[in-house]
Amino acid sequence: MFVNHTPVEKTAEIFNQLALMPKTDGAHYIETPWYDFPVEIIPFDKYQVNQDISTMFQMLAQGVPKENIIAWHDDPKQRDILEAWLPEENVYKVRQNRPEFHDVGNVAFTISDEMFPTFNYDSPVAMIASAHYAVAPPFRAPAWTKRQKIKKMLEDNGLKKVVQIPHKYFRQLDENGKMVLAKVQSACYITEPGYTGDVQVIDIARDKTFMAPRGGIYPKAEISLKFYTGQRHKWDKAKDVNGDEVDGAGKSTTYNCNVIAITTQNTSTEHDPSVLDPKHSIPIMAKTAVWYKPGDVVPSGRTCYEVSAKRAPKLIKAMHSDEYANALQGVIVSKNWSSEMVRMLDVGV
Predict the structure, then answer these.
(1) Cα–Cα distance between 237 and 156 in angstroms, integer?
(2) Of 175, 196, 208, 307, whose CB has the highest number of CB atoms within 10 Å?
(3) So where are the chain's domains?
(4) Per CATH, is 12-220 categorized as 3.40.50?
(5) H helix runs in the chain, sequence order
(6) What is this structure's pTM?
């Protein structure tokens, strides 16, 4: 993938190190399989690897000279590993602002909001982060403010490709020090200085590539572009039906209006295979939507939207369709149901 260098044999000596990572509490280590990406990363000579030791190993295995890699990690034990493979003067505790080196890697998602504005966008950048930046909608909700700003910053600095990375694509250390499939939804953002055209989206799960208009969203599925309007849907949020907030025994409630209620999954990162194929990432429960009429009992664990009796049948039909389910799946990036994502999609009724 690092295309200016001749790949060499992936020696056991290098890749066995992936199993020997220090199991320190809070240390960021996630195995980034750049080899599997259907995309050339950055065809240049010098790289700054950001908090991603496995990328450093893979660069060395593909023939990138160690003198052409600088790397940083905020964990001292992991810096020890870096220093065992790179010149000591090339290893740092924090990111270095050295323009001749091109930023690549996979920083901890918890610091992505702080790290992305620091990268050197005068040169191409290829960084993995939360997929939120690819689908940040233009709402005014406080939680989206940083995501919107980073998305626009990427666009202003030549965002050219977004590689949508499926749920469980990576491996990472769990709290017990075991290597497990990572339950994260992420994307690789690739920039080219001066580029202002449409953005190429590579959907690994479906083995599809499509172009998305710059300034919109860059979803996991092209079908999402058909539904996305950039405007708030005309649904009115009633309220969530949760056990500690509702009437009676705390397990159900009723409304004096028509509502569409959708199952809320607050803890599970697994999938209902009857809804969509697991490889398309985190749960999507659009097909569980139910129309409740005035006086009907709404079970606990539902997110409810007020609708008119005239519109409700059309909404239910649309939400139960494969087309809508796939469109919504294309933008969901959190294990929790997001009411904003429903409002973001106009189902055309």
Answers:
(1) 34
(2) 307
(3) 12-220, 236-344
(4) yes
(5) 12-15, 53-61, 76-85, 112-115, 132-135, 145-156, 223-227, 312-319, 322-329, 339-344
(6) 0.81
